[in-house]
TrEMBL record:
<dbReference type="InterPro" id="IPR041380">
    <property type="entry name" value="Acetyltransf_17"/>
</dbReference>
<dbReference type="InterPro" id="IPR051554">
    <property type="entry name" value="Acetyltransferase_Eis"/>
</dbReference>
<dbReference type="InterPro" id="IPR016181">
    <property type="entry name" value="Acyl_CoA_acyltransferase"/>
</dbReference>
<feature type="binding site">
    <location>
        <begin position="89"/>
        <end position="94"/>
    </location>
    <ligand>
        <name>acetyl-CoA</name>
    </ligand>
</feature>
<feature type="binding site">
    <location>
        <begin position="117"/>
        <end position="118"/>
    </location>
    <ligand>
        <name>acetyl-CoA</name>
    </ligand>
</feature>
<dbReference type="GO" id="GO:0030649">
    <property type="term" value="P:aminoglycoside antibiotic catabolic process"/>
</dbReference>
<dbReference type="Pfam" id="PF13530">
    <property type="entry name" value="SCP2_2"/>
</dbReference>
<feature type="active site" description="Proton acceptor; via carboxylate">
    <location>
        <position position="402"/>
    </location>
</feature>
<feature type="domain" description="N-acetyltransferase">
    <location>
        <begin position="1"/>
        <end position="154"/>
    </location>
</feature>
<dbReference type="Pfam" id="PF13527">
    <property type="entry name" value="Acetyltransf_9"/>
</dbReference>
<keyword id="KW-0012">Acyltransferase</keyword>
<dbReference type="InterPro" id="IPR000182">
    <property type="entry name" value="GNAT_dom"/>
</dbReference>
<dbReference type="InterPro" id="IPR025559">
    <property type="entry name" value="Eis_dom"/>
</dbReference>
<protein>
    <recommendedName>
        <fullName>N-acetyltransferase domain-containing protein</fullName>
    </recommendedName>
</protein>
<dbReference type="GO" id="GO:0034069">
    <property type="term" value="F:aminoglycoside N-acetyltransferase activity"/>
</dbReference>
<dbReference type="Pfam" id="PF17668">
    <property type="entry name" value="Acetyltransf_17"/>
</dbReference>
<feature type="active site" description="Proton donor">
    <location>
        <position position="122"/>
    </location>
</feature>
Length: 402
């Protein structure tokens, strides 16, 4: 079995092979073509049999991931992974993932991320779930705010309703400012917006856009939505520069005529809406799921790149069985800056690299993984010390689909 890079001329065969792996056919020209137009063919892989048959695919996008402390870091976004049913459980996926991780390291990157179709697949390759997301559904008859609009502090600015096709670069600019300060957020490269590669609102599907502008007329938030014939108003995403703008957009959406309920997709764990409504039960949470999975390929570099909100010291014994690597690191944080060096000291925590990926962005407390039996704490104070150290300024959240 050979794992080889693709070329730009391989795009159609690559997509055909991927769809065959899932027993489907590619979409007709149009939307399907846009979705795959952002593929970076110099980062895509074929698994090829000795007789030349292409039996597996994997690819990566070049993103920036925002780390705690608003630190941007390059990250390879794994996508389009598939193996033909005739060649599963023969080591094809393992070979492709091994090649992908080697290529990431060769590019000087230290993070690989993905969205996981099946939760049992990728932990063995060193990935851990690092962010979660859910949806909130609010019936219109329960949408009254605890503090009526007339009594609420005024939010400087205004809301304008545009069609998706009328937005120009507004969405791209607002999203880019947002993702640079939100832990767990991924960049959306310009060519994604330009080609409409992705799901709405990146895709140019018919949508209305509520654009919030500050007092100077500069866009500082948006929400993309569509009112369906059933009366459900579905919000693809709400992007806002601060909580006041997010609240203004939520009030606008919940006051939309003819809607019987409003569904907010892709909500972060700490979404305040249920606490803002007069009926605390009105915003029903559902479909909570893991979203972004994170894989560290250079532990010292990863730990010294992210920001830290507390000082402390930990000895981490990190095992990476997929790559056959194990090392003990002394992590010391002072004034928000970290140093990570090899050590022979006794460990505070012993953990798999996938578990380090889960706690890396601050979305999972190390003590949770200790209680779950994933991480071993070598003394009673270790878990609490790790919790205080790894906690981010706010829970990480990723909206981007890839």
């Amino acid at each position: 079995m050979e794992i080889r890079l693709t070329t730009p001329q391989d795009r159609d065969v690559f997509v055909d092979t991927l769809f065959a792996a899932f027993g489907r056919f590619p979409e007709p020209p149009g939307e399907g073509g846009r979705v795959w137009s952002a593929l970076e063919m110099d980062r895509a892989l074929f698994a090829v049999t000795p007789d030349g048959r292409r039996v597996g695919t994997a690819a990566a996008y070049s993103f920036e991931l925002t780390l705690p402390g608003a630190v941007p870091a390059p990250a390879a976004g794994v996508t389009a992974v598939g193996v033909l049913p005739s060649h599963r459980r023969q080591g094809v996926l393992t070979a492709m993932m091994r090649r992908h991780l080697a290529d990431v390291r060769a590019r000087g990157e230290f993070l690989s991320v993905l969205l996981c179709s099946e939760a049992v697949i990728y932990r063995r390759f060193g990935y851990g779930p690092a962010t979660t997301t859910h949806r909130l559904t609010v019936p219109r008859h329960q949408a009254a705010f605890a503090v009526p609009r007339a009594e609420a502090a005024p939010v400087p600015g205004s809301i304008e309703v545009l069609r998706r096709a009328e937005c120009g670069g507004i969405l791209e600019d607002v999203y880019d400012r947002y993702r640079r300060v939100r832990p767990g957020a991924l960049s959306r490269p310009h060519h994604w917006w330009e080609r409409g590669a992705g799901r709405p609102p990146v895709a140019p599907a018919p949508r209305y856009v509520a654009v919030h502008r500050d007092a100077g007329g500069v866009p500082d938030g948006y929400a993309t939505y569509l009112l369906e014939g059933t009366g459900t108003l579905t919000v693809d995403e709400t992007i806002a520069s601060d909580d006041a703008v997010a609240t203004a957009l939520a009030r606008f959406l919940l006051g939309h005529d003819l809607a019987t309920e409003v569904v907010f997709r892709q909500c972060p764990p700490e979404h305040p809406l249920r606490w803002q409504l007069a009926d605390v039960r009105a915003a029903r949470a559902s479909d909570e799921t893991d979203w972004l999975w994170v894989r560290l390929l250079d532990v010292p570099r990863a730990l010294t790149t992210r920001g830290w909100a507390a000082d402390g010291e930990l000895v981490l014994d990190v095992d990476d069985p997929f790559l056959g690597e194990r090392a003990r690191h002394l992590l010391t944080v002072r004034g928000g800056e970290a140093e990570c060096v090899p050590t022979d000291r006794e460990p505070d925590l012993s953990l798999d690299v996938s578990d380090l990926g889960s706690v890396y962005l601050g979305g999972t407390a190390p003590s949770t993984l200790v209680r779950a039996g994933h991480v071993r704490a070598h003394h009673p104070a270790a878990a609490a010390a790790a919790d205080a150290l790894f906690r981010a300024e706010r829970p990480p959240h990723c909206l981007h689909w890839f």
